[in-house]
Design goal:
This protein is an alpha/beta fold and 258 residues long. It contains nine helices and 14 strands. The strands form three sheets. A six-stranded mixed β-sheet has the order 1-2-3-4-5-6, covered by helices on one side. It has a six-stranded mixed β-sheet with strand order 7-8-9-10-13-14. Helix 4 (145-156) crosses helix 9 and helix 5 (171-181) packs antiparallel against helix 6.
Length: 258
Amino acid sequence: MTILPLPAFNDNYIWAILHKSNNEMWVVDPGDAKVVMDFLQQNNKKLIGILITHHHFDHTGGVKELKEYAKCPVYGPHHLTELVTHPVSNTDPISIFDRSFETIETPAHTLDHLCYFSNTHSDPMLFSGDTLFRGGCGRLMEGSAAQMLTAMNRLKALPDDTKVYCTHEYTLSNYRFALSLEPDNQVLIEADTHCQNLRKQNTPTLPSTLRLEKACNPFMRTDNRSLLARAAQQINEPISTDNSQQFAQVRRAKDAFS
């Protein structure tokens, strides 16, 4: 399969999953139906499935129109009864062409958030929605720091070479914050320089890899004492002694960062 980003709104990506030998495709988090419809028509593609990671409108706004147009199945959280035809929860499998994806519940950004992971081929991949970004994680809009820490630990356990397809182009702002916590992290410095160059060419910085996230992403590095010290200093707090509260301090530091 081939995976392409379809830019939407200011910084969203709708991921198009294309069959390698026919005209069928799936999409992940189609917030804008027109973006997908234009791609289908311009490339003579047939939409045969939709994945939803969570309920926010910039991820679901185009689902109703696309479902009615394509008469295709929609996989996603159980409570989205008007949109989802196939509700899924933790460990439920989904078949997309010749690959099987496992559903991973990651409540934190929203309580219904799902990620989709495939390791049935030599190139593992993760559709992480708004849970894991390149260099960051989603804001805690409904869930807790403890839940997001659990999600980060769950995703950290996936293979290092897993490609991470998140749904926002937040990389440069995430790296600015990460560098404020780890200014001497050479992997991070090189990744930031590379992404700066990509964005100058209007090229997406995605996908990332879990190996890179574990080396650069502060929300996957909250066991680093110096990182925690800088985050706590930025919000004028002493370092907490509790792991989830330490994670919360890093998240609050990011929320306050300018």
